[in-house]
Design goal:
Helix content: 10-25%
Shape: elongated
Structural class: alpha+beta
Number of strands: 13
Order of helices and strands: EEEEEHEEEEHEEEEHH
Strand content: 35-45%
Distance between the termini: 23 Å
Radius of gyration: 19 Å
Strand order of the largest sheet: 1-10-13-6-7
């Protein structure tokens, strides 16, 4: 079985900040929230939420490495769990991070951008593990719940146009889209064609998006 593609989610984390230094020293530690659990977000094709413990197994394996990047750039690594410069704190409500930023020019730039609040966003890249997700349909809404996934990267990003209750639809897994589409089409067969205009609208959007490889 081929490895699932890396899915990316971008959101505004308004409490991302550079920790205050001690005395006259300047801190190089950025802290903030990466993921809020059980918070439904609008993915256009479906709503999506992450269950508490979704990354527990991945984080427990010390051989796994999560990297902190700047704006998804592999050439701009800020910290990593492997080097113990990135710490992830998992709870029932959220996943927080603490990154000791590397002393490089882009690391310095990242610190200044976060301090000035020019950069406030966080992103994360994940892969659903095996059958680590489920889809439920409530009328014309499909909800995807992720309960087991890998977390190879988190990212400090300048993309801030999304509220913290929404995420971008960047790199959504095609199989997930197909699953949501199937649930909606199965439901459409059970209702009158003119009795559920919102459902018909969603079906039309699905077909257009899939045709255009969104």
């Amino acid at each position: 079985m081929s490895e699932k593609r890396l899915e990316l989610r971008e959101l505004v984390a308004t409490d991302i900040e550079v920790r205050a230094g001690e005395g006259d020293s300047e801190s190089r530690i950025i802290t903030g929230v990466v993921i809020k659990y059980n918070q439904p977000t609008n993915m256009r094709w479906f709503t999506e939420k992450f269950a508490p413990g979704a990354f527990k197994k991945y984080l427990a394996d010390k051989k796994n490495n999560t990297r902190a990047l700047y704006h998804h750039d592999d050439g701009k690594q800020l910290a990593s769990t492997l080097n113990k410069t990135l710490k992830l704190f998992d709870s029932d409500t959220e996943l927080r991070f603490e990154a000791e930023v590397v002393k490089t020019s882009y690391g310095d730039d990242t610190l200044e951008l976060v301090k000035s609040k020019e950069v406030r966003g966080m992103s994360f890249g994940f892969r659903v593990v095996n059958e680590g997700q489920k889809f439920d349909r409530k009328d014309d809404i499909v909800e995807r719940t992720v309960f087991e996934a890998d977390l190879p990267e988190i990212t400090v990003t300048g993309i801030n146009q999304y509220e913290d209750s929404q995420v971008s639809t960047r790199s959504v897994d095609q199989d997930a889209i197909e699953e949501a589409k199937k649930l909606l089409e199965d439901h459409a067969d059970q209702v009158d064609g003119d009795g559920c205009p919102e459902l018909r609208k969603r079906q039309h959007q699905f077909r257009r998006m899939l045709t255009n490889n969104y």
